[in-house]
């Protein structure tokens, strides 16, 4: 049963022209002359025995992690513009990393093939039979993801970059994309989009700060460290520069005191004393913070590992109790 307020943001192809195999044939007419989309039928990937279609869609579309965050509205640059400003397109399959940028990289999620399948979209993304009441949320996420692609791919050069990076199905051509994108631009304005997609590109470093400070998550938004050495380099590398400047000031003060032995006034002596004390406290604080970061990350990794082991053992016991499947 479909939700009354949800709809597919593109028209269905003529039923008589849908072939039994999945595919988007090469367009034979210009996009301006075409009123219907080339037929496409999505094939579900192989899922684990205890997996479901709904859980698969949640993994592919849900961006709940980024809800209630603030960013610049509509800030999505086309792919050719991303290359002009020196960013590399990095493929990610995590929807919450889509359009997050870090240094010279922009994370982009390839457009899921099932979003081209009108029948699949209708059955699974406009249905009221979705766990946890996420029908409208997944629909809004799907529409939001589609909208970002209408902004990322505006020119033939953007389309060629998308094909090079495998962001779109390989059998899609520019004319077919123009038709598809045109329908999306017409219909998406009247549909509800997920709150995350009301904003555009988000900076990874700011998201890390938000998750660590406001959501009390020691790992931040996007944890990429596989060794503690890289973790300390990223978060404490700036301390080396601070210590260099502090050392220069201390050396200058010591030189001043020794060159004018007995002539330095009381204000200079008091300043030197307090600066030395504060420097020692700063060093102690930095060392303490490094120890705390190590302990927090070690404990969180240990707890996550133990939870994973318990889930795995529980699943093994469940399979042993149920016996082999016929």
UniProtKB/TrEMBL annotation:
<keyword id="KW-0472">Membrane</keyword>
<feature type="transmembrane region" description="Helical">
    <location>
        <begin position="271"/>
        <end position="304"/>
    </location>
</feature>
<dbReference type="InterPro" id="IPR046536">
    <property type="entry name" value="DUF6601"/>
</dbReference>
<dbReference type="Pfam" id="PF20246">
    <property type="entry name" value="DUF6601"/>
</dbReference>
<keyword id="KW-0812">Transmembrane</keyword>
<feature type="transmembrane region" description="Helical">
    <location>
        <begin position="236"/>
        <end position="256"/>
    </location>
</feature>
<keyword id="KW-1133">Transmembrane helix</keyword>
<protein>
    <recommendedName>
        <fullName>Subtilisin-like serine protease</fullName>
    </recommendedName>
</protein>
């Amino acid at each position: 049963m479909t939700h009354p307020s949800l709809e597919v943001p593109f028209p269905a192809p003529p039923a008589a022209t849908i072939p039994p195999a999945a595919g988007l044939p090469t367009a034979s007419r210009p996009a301006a002359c075409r009123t219907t989309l080339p037929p496409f039928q999505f094939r579900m990937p192989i899922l684990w025995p205890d997996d479901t279609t709904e859980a698969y869609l949640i993994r592919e579309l849900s961006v709940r992690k980024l809800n209630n965050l603030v960013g610049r509205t509509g800030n999505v640059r086309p792919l050719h513009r991303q290359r002009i400003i020196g960013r590399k397109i990095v493929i990610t399959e995590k929807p919450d990393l889509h359009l997050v940028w870090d240094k010279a990289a922009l994370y982009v999620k390839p457009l899921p093939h099932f979003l081209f399948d009108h029948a699949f979209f209708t059955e699974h993304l406009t249905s009221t039979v979705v766990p946890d009441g996420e029908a409208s949320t997944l629909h809004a996420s799907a529409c939001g993801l589609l909208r970002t692609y209408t902004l990322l791919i505006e020119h033939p050069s953007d389309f060629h970059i998308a094909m090079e990076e495998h962001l779109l199905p390989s059998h899609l051509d520019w004319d077919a994309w123009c038709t598809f994108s045109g329908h999306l631009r017409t219909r998406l304005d009247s549909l509800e989009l997920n709150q995350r997609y009301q904003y555009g590109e988000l900076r990874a470093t700011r998201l890390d700060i938000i998750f660590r400070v406001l959501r009390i998550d020691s790992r931040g938004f996007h944890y990429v460290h596989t060794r503690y050495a890289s973790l300390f380099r990223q978060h404490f590398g700036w301390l080396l520069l601070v210590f260099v400047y502090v050392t220069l000031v201390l050396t200058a003060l010591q030189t001043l005191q020794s060159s004018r032995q007995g002539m330095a006034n009381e204000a200079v002596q008091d300043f030197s004393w307090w600066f030395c004390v504060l420097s020692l406290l700063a060093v102690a604080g930095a060392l303490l913070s490094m120890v705390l970061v190590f302990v927090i990350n070690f404990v969180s990794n240990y707890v996550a590992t133990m939870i994973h082991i318990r889930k795995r053992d529980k699943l093994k016991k469940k399979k042993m109790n149920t016996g082999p499947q016929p």
